[in-house]
Design a protein that fits this description.
Elements: E1 2-4, E2 10-12, E3 16-23, E4 30-37, E5 55-57, E6 66-70, E7 76-83, E8 88-95, E9 100-104, E10 111-118, E11 123-130
Antiparallel strand pairs: 1-2, 3-4, 5-6, 6-9, 7-8, 7-10, 10-11
Domain Secretion system C-terminal sorting: 56-130
Pfam family, one: Por_Secre_tail
InterPro entries: Big_2 (IPR003343), Invasin/intimin_cell_adhesion (IPR008964), Secre_tail (IPR026444)
């Protein structure tokens, strides 16, 4: 449903409610908060004069190979793979070459996953189907 980075930034992945637990390093204090992620389905991109052709292939795929991510600038991106309920399955930092990044999906079970690709300037998500 959401991820929390080392700086405490919460990023919504899918709709739902999640309880986030924070504990001090020495374990002397723990606190909880509940976060609800709601997507209203609307996006206002009227200020953007560019179009990104972000794609992953093959999709659908099987779990015995890699997938390729295309359409992004040559840069380093963090790629995160979540199962359908929002649990982080894999996270890798990938350097894109010739606008293509390669991500290992070996040993994934059949199902639907969410791939999120991002850096400091942008964040993209799409569905991945593993047969």
């Amino acid at each position: 449903i959401a991820t929390v980075d080392t700086n405490g930034l919460v990023t919504g992945i899918t709709q739902g409610t999640v309880t986030i637990t924070a504990t001090t390093n020495e374990g002397s204090f723990t606190d909880y908060t509940t976060v609800t992620i709601i997507f209203d389905g609307s996006v206002d991109d009227s200020d953007n004069d560019f179009e990104i052709d972000f794609k992953i292939y093959p999709n659908p795929t099987n779990s015995s190979n890699n997938i390729y991510i295309t359409g992004l600038n040559e840069d380093s991106y963090t790629v995160m793979l979540f199962d359908i309920i929002g649990k982080l399955i894999n996270k890798e930092n990938i350097k894109f070459k010739n606008k293509i990044g390669e991500f290992n999906i070996k040993n994934l079970k059949t199902g639907i996953y969410i791939i999120t690709v991002g850096n400091l300037n942008s964040l993209y998500s799409t569905k991945l189907i593993v047969k």
